[in-house]
Specification:
alpha/beta; about 20% helix; 6 strands; Dinitrogenase iron-molybdenum cofactor biosynthesis protein; MTH1175_dom
Length: about 120
């Protein structure tokens, strides 16, 4: 299973969770089974690229996204891509993964979606 976290750089598990999901410069992907960690640049429309993060991450085989928060449109796009999203992640990628594994993150829903860019 591949788990993704929006991040600022390419520091692997020590990178910091980016607070603004769509504008995260990178996405760090952890393969839970193999332990492989890699980061990919965010080349989506927010950065003048093509496509949206859910599409790009689905192509990478991501099944779970952990982030601080995101808007209702992004939640809907992840649902359509078959990627489960959990909110409330903070700290490092390692912290976010641990919180998710311990059941401390909430599944993203329309009710807990960000309505403004205050996340």
């Amino acid at each position: 299973m591949k788990v993704c976290v929006p991040t600022y750089e390419m520091k692997g598990l020590d990178d910091t969770v980016c607070e603004h999901f769509g504008r995260a410069p990178t996405f760090t992907i952890l393969d839970i089974e193999s332990g492989e960690v890699r980061a990919i640049p965010n080349t989506s429309e927010h950065f003048g690229g093509i496509g949206l993060p859910p599409e790009a991450l689905a192509k990478e085989g991501v099944e779970v996204m952990l982030c601080g928060g995101l808007g209702p449109r992004a939640i809907m796009m992840f649902e359509q891509a078959g990627i489960d999203v959990f909110v409330g992640a903070a700290g490092t990628v390692r912290d976010a993964i641990r919180a998710w594994q311990e059941g401390r993150l909430s599944e993203a829903t329309d009710e807990n979606a960000c309505r403004e860019h205050r996340h």
